[in-house]
Amino acid sequence: MKATSKRLLTALALATLTAGAWAQAQTASDVAPTTRSAEAPTSPSSSPDQQLRLDVEQLKQLVHQQQQHIDALEARRKGDPQPPAVVASAMPVVSAPAKTLDSSPAPHADGSQSQTAPRAQNVQAGSSDERIRNLERQIKGIGPISFSGDVRVRAEPFFGGPTDHSLERARARIRARFNAVADLGSQFRAGITLATGDVNDPVSTNANVTGFYTRKAIALDQAFVEFNPKDFKPLTLTGGKFRYPWFNTELTWDKDLNPEGAAESLGFKLDNPVLKRLAFVGFQLPFAEVAGTSPTDKRIAQQITYGGQVQTSWALGPRVTLSAYSGFYDFRGADAIALALSRASSKNPQTPLSGLLPLNSSSPVQNSLYTTTASTIITVNGTAYPTGVSSVTNAQFGSKFALFDNLARIDINTGHERLPLSFIGDYVQNTEACANVRNIVAVPANTTTQTFKQTLNAPCNSHQRRGYWAEGRIGRLQQKGDFQFGYARIFIEREAVLGNFNYSEIRQGTNVTEHRVDAYYQLDKSVQLGFTALVGRPLASTEPWLTRLQFDTIYIF
C-alpha cells in the first residue's frame, strides 16, 4: 500500500509540473518551437507498473525539454532591450493549469479585476525544481500516514445442534475493514478503523449477505491517540477506542472487540540471559452509563472495567521463548450488560430501544440471569384482562465478574523458516462467581395496570467458575506459498467469564465445550484462503454436536 501511494504521489507531482511547464512553454513558442518526444505505444499486455514507469519517464523527458526552452527564453530576454511591458503584454492568457499556482484575478488597465485571467508574472515565477520542492513540502505537511485493511468473503454452513434443527443454516458473510494511522511527530500516533458489522454487536465485524440487497452498515471500530514520550520511551499512554494493549485469548475477550477508555503500558527490555522483557499494563474501560431511579438520587453512574496485566518474556534456550502473562479484569456494574442483553432478546415491538442500547447476542445468555418482566393489563367491570404486551423492567446476573487470567505462550524455532511452532495455554477463574445473588432486586408488587414476573435461566453454582484454552499452531502467513495449521480445545463453565464479550463463534459463550481446527494458505502476497471447523455443545449435555464450518477468502491491502 505504501509503494502504491508513493507512485501515485510521484505521478501527481509530475502531472502538476507538466501542466505549469506547458503553460510557460506556450510563452516561448514565438521564439523557439517546442519539440515533443514521440509517445511510445502501450502494449495491451504490459503491466500497470510498467505502464506507470513508462508514463513517468516520458513526463520527465518532456519537463526537461521544456525547461531547456524556458532557459533559452530567459537568456534571450536578458539580452533583449525590450521594455518589460512589451514582454508582459505578449503573454497569452492561461486558464485552468495556471490556477493551480495562483487563482487570483489579474488587473485590467482601468484597475478592475478580471474574473478569469490569472496574473502572468505568477505563472512564470519559480523554476520546475522550486515547484517540486514546494509540492514535497505540502505532501510532508499532511504527515506520514499509512493505510491498510482487508476484505473477507465467507461461506458458513451449520450442521447438527438441537434436535429441533433450530441452529442449522447455510449463510454467506462479508467483512471489510479500513485502517489509517498517522505518526504525529516523534511522540504521538493516532489512528482510526472503519469496519462493517451490526453497531449493537461489539464482538463481530461480519455482515450477513441478506436483507434484500440493502447496503451494509460501516461504523467506527477504532479511534485512538497514543503518546510515547521521547524522554521516557518505556511508557505508552493510549486513549479512545483501541486494540487490546494486553495479551489475551478468546477465552476471555473476542478478537473483534475493541475496548474504549484509557490504557497505560510500561515495558522494559532487560539485559539478562534469561529474563528478556518485563512490562506492566493498566486499563480503565467504561462501558455504560446508568441513571439512578431513587426520587432523591438520580445521578448518572459510570459502569466500568478496571484491569491490569504483568507481562514477562523468557529465553529458555537458543530456539525456545516463553512468554507469561498474569492479568485481572474487574467488571463494575455488569448488570447494565444483563439488562441490555435481555431487552435485545425480548424484541418488544412497542418500545424496542427503550433504556440501555440493546446488545446483540448470537446465542442465548448462558450466565445465570434473573429477568423481571412487566405485563400490561386492563380492568373492565372489575375483571382484569391481559393485553399481551410485556417489557423487561430489570435483569441481573447471578455473578459478579472479577476474572483472574493466567496465560503462557511457548514459541519454538524449528530450524525451518516457514515452520515456526507455538503453544498457548490460558486458564481463567471468576473470583466473584454467584456473588451477586444477594443483590437481586425483589419482584415488584402487582398493580391494577401491570403484573410482574421474575424468571431464571439457570441456577447460579459458584463451583462453575473456571475456563480453559489450549492451542497449538505451526506455520506462518507472510509470503506466497506459506501455510498455517492450528487446533484449540476450549472448555468454559457457566460463570467463568462474561459470556457476551468472549469468543462469539463457539456454540455458546459459557457452559460449553468446543474443538476448533483451522488451516490457512497464502495464495498470493495479499490473498489468503482459510478453513475453520468449530464443533461444540453445552456442558453436561447429550445434545448432538453443532458443527460450524467457515470457508474464507481474504484480500489484505
SSE topology sketch:
Blueprint: H1 2-27, H2 48-79, H3 84-89, H4 96-99, E1 105-107, E2 113-118, H5 120-124, H6 128-142, E3 145-160, E4 169-184, E5 188-196, E6 207-208, E7 218-227, E8 235-241, E9 260-269, E10 275-291, E11 300-317, E12 320-332, H7 335-346, E13 369-380, E14 383-397, E15 401-412, E16 421-430, E17 450-456, E18 466-475, E19 483-492, E20 512-524, E21 527-538, E22 546-556
Antiparallel strand pairs: 1-2, 3-4, 3-22, 4-5, 4-6, 5-7, 7-8, 8-9, 9-10, 10-11, 11-12, 12-15, 13-14, 13-17, 15-16, 16-18, 18-19, 19-20, 20-21, 21-22
Helix pairs in contact: 1-2, 1-6
Throw out a few tags for this protein.
557 residues; alpha+beta; Porin; 2 domains; 16-stranded antiparallel β-barrel; three-stranded antiparallel β-sheet; 18% helix
- The tally of helices reads 7
Strand content: 35-45%
Quaternary structure state of the chains depicted: single chain
In the residues, how many domains can be counted? Answer: 2
Q: Extract low-pLDDT stretches.
A: 20-46, 82-125, 349-355
Order of helices and strands: HHHHEEHHEEEEEEEEEEHEEEEEEEEEE
Mean pLDDT: 83
Number of strands: 22
